[in-house]
Amino acid sequence: MEENVILVYFSLDGATEYIAQKISDKLKCDLLKVTYKSARPLKGFLKYFIYGFQASTKRKPQINYRPVNLSNYDTIIIGSPVWASSFTPPIRSFFYLNPVKDKNISLFFTCGLSAESAVKKLKIFLGYNNYITEESFKAPFDNNDEYLQQKLDNFTKTITSKL
Ligand SMILES: Cc1cc2nc3c(=O)[nH]c(=O)nc-3n(C[C@H](O)[C@H](O)[C@H](O)COP(=O)(O)O)c2cc1C
């Protein structure tokens, strides 16, 4: 049990949650899910338009999460989908309300194409921390198990080597 490690994530459609579960199973770390307070089940074009707009205009929507004291943790893993080449608004709200400094931080994204720009933006937003590793998972449900396992192993091993 990694008592010093927490994984904070947001997932709209389940891909990020799927990866978050796998990582927390491997590390036996705490898992904290962030959700929208107003669960508006947006679908189709509206989903991309409204959530994409929220992400690119740096909105901080109201969120729900289990109360947590991040000062109890040295290592924080953050998981988010890529939205409009950025990280998601609920993750912005969470770390605005729970700022982090001098933590060991690892990031993972799930995405359709690329997470490069989202990684950069999240690091800038979070500020001064010790960034350990980052990984992106493209359409993780489509990946074959072996490839996914390899990526998960590399990610979690890098994190444990720095504990
Ligand atoms: C509003 C919205 C915007 C998105 N923008 C991007 C993007 O800019 N780049 C990308 O690679 N994928 C983008 N995607 C795809 C998601 O990042 C991808 O499907 C992700 O795995 C979804 O995670 P989830 O199932 O945990 O919600 C977008 C999806 C949504 C809903």
Report the top-level CATH class. Answer: Alpha Beta
Ranges where pLDDT stays below 50 over 5 or more residues in a row are: none
Rg over C-alpha atoms, rounded to the nearest angstrom: 15 Å
The CATH superfamily bears the name Flavodoxin domain
CATH topology: Rossmann fold
Topology:
Elements lengths: L4 E6 L4 H13 L2 E7 L7 H13 L6 E2 L10 E7 L7 H9 L6 E8 L4 H11 L3 E9 L6 H17 L2
The structure holds flavin mononucleotide.
Flavin mononucleotide binds next to helix 1, helix 2 and strand 5.
What is shown here, in short?
By secondary structure, the chain is an alpha/beta fold. Helices cover 39% and strands 24% of the residues. The protein contains 5 helices and 6 strands, in the order βαβαββαβαβα.
Can you tell me about this structure?
With 163 residues, the chain is α/β, with parallel strands linked by helices. It has one domain (5-161): Rossmann fold. It contains five helices and six strands, in the order E-H-E-H-E-E-H-E-H-E-H. The chain has helices at 15-27, 44-56, 89-97, 116-126, 145-161; strands at residues 5-10, 30-36, 63-64, 75-81, 104-111, 130-138. The protein has a six-stranded mixed β-sheet with strand order 3-2-1-4-5-6, with helices on both faces. Strand 1 (5-10), helix 1 and strand 2 (30-36) form a beta-alpha-beta unit. The longest helix has 17 residues, at 145-161. The radius of gyration is 15 Å and the shape is globular. The chain starts with a strand and ends with a helix.
